[in-house]
What does this fold into?
Amino acid sequence: MSKFRSADWFGTKDKMGFLYRSWMKNQGMPEDMFDGRPVIGICNTYSELTPCNAHLRDISESVKRGVLEAGGFPVEFPIMSLGETLLKPTAMLFRNLASMDAEESIRGNPIDGVVLLTGCDKTTPSTLMGAASVDLPTLVVQGGPMLNGKFRGEDIGSGTALWKFNDKLKTGEMTYDEFAEAESCQSRSPGHCMTMGTASTMAVMVESLGMSLSGMAAIPAVDARKKRIAQLSGRRIVDMVKEDLRISKILTREAFENAIKINAAVGGSTNFVIHLTAIAGRVGIDLNIDDFDNLGSKMPLLLNLMPSGKFLMEDFYYAGGLPAIIKQIQSELHMDVITVTGKSHAENIANSGTIYNSDVIYTFDEPLIPEAGTTVLKGNLALNGCVIKPSAATPALMQHTGRAVVFENIEDYHARVDDPLLDIDETCVMVLKTVGPVGYPGMPEVGNMPLPKKLLDKGITDMVRISDGRMSGTAFGTVILHVSPESAIGGNLGLVENGDMITLDVAKKLIQLEVSDEELEARRKVWQAPPAMAERGYVKMYIDTVQQADKGADLEFLVGCSGSKVTRDSH
Ligand code: FES
It folds into this structure.
């Protein structure tokens, strides 16, 4: 008799056992697949509408091969796939929905362990959140980044190049024909964005947490070694089931602290803050937004990748990959925490971690930037905090006071930003409201508002921008994000008026609206919330229950873990 949970389905000699096995046999599975061996779910976020994950069927075959080799029974299943580029109004709106899909698909099926096949930004946190709420042995296989973009002799990075080319198109420095040519040159292989955008950040996050095999994060999607490590992951998950190495044994407080420090060292996306907080909430770890500042802001930047630096993920892999970063900052990390290998980080990198290209990976003693992690700012404009990524910002703007130019929502921004009569100069602070979790809804990546055309024409490349939204991990600039509480629920951001002065002081971790408390109270009395954007369906449930950015923007009732027991076990 099998000791695994799948035996509740396949291990009985009665009507129900017949039912569970017989229908599976229509796929041609022989009798011995039901002999009590571990059943491994392969949770696949493949979709042709998620181009970054479109190769995951191929990767899945390698995982299956590994599972079979180790004596397991692989069963692949699809879940909602969140493609960053196509899905409207924003993939983030559906991260929590996809997490519910993953959670219930894992719990409700005869699965003993699960491999999460992910890639594009939200496909990683959504599946990890769902799996964490079930707490089975779990391992992540990231699809890997695209090969470097190549355009007219230059390496160009996903997203990062687009933001730059878009500005050049606006100012006439680039023709439309050149712009169109770059489109094909940027994305030239399977895989996710190859800058240190959110997908790469998530790949680094899972390896930092100990949730993937060591060295996986940077392997390009089309490199044969990606399939090799996928196959090894398939073998390993079978052993994890036998060892009962559940996700809760790996996702400890120390693992989250490691992830925060490593994220700082690689210049990871600001989206990391929201996703890591949400994952921590699922396993009962109380990660506070201040933890990101306390643990990360003093960490040095070692990795020279766009958008903070020059190179791309392919270069990162050839330069030594994440083990090289971990080795450099090991004195700052909890190196003895257990990972999916059953071993510690220290053991995992015992025979790796060499830097092969010191232009790409810097050392802890001589970093690219001495203090570069995400900084948390507070003040009357963000009582519960907001974030800035100093490594992607302009040093001269890190201490700045400027006049607010307010856009009430994204439509207002688009309608007026390029109006030659807009009263704005480069010393102003651009303020965008109603792009938070509730207000938009879904907290889109619009915080890095492109600058007004008339300022681009003057050669201005950066300004202070502030919003309750997010920005793409591939983006850059002096951009203050995730303001909490958000404007749509009555946060002070919603009370900012044109002409108010705003002070940013990153060294003092301050974001302050230079308006008296009395004046703010007077404005609050006449303030009106923007109309709700949905009256039914998932979006209504999302608006009613989503938490603020500093809490990870998970739905209130999804926080926590219900375990793997199904609610009713008989028909
Ligand atoms: Fe999918 Fe960037 S759009 S990873």
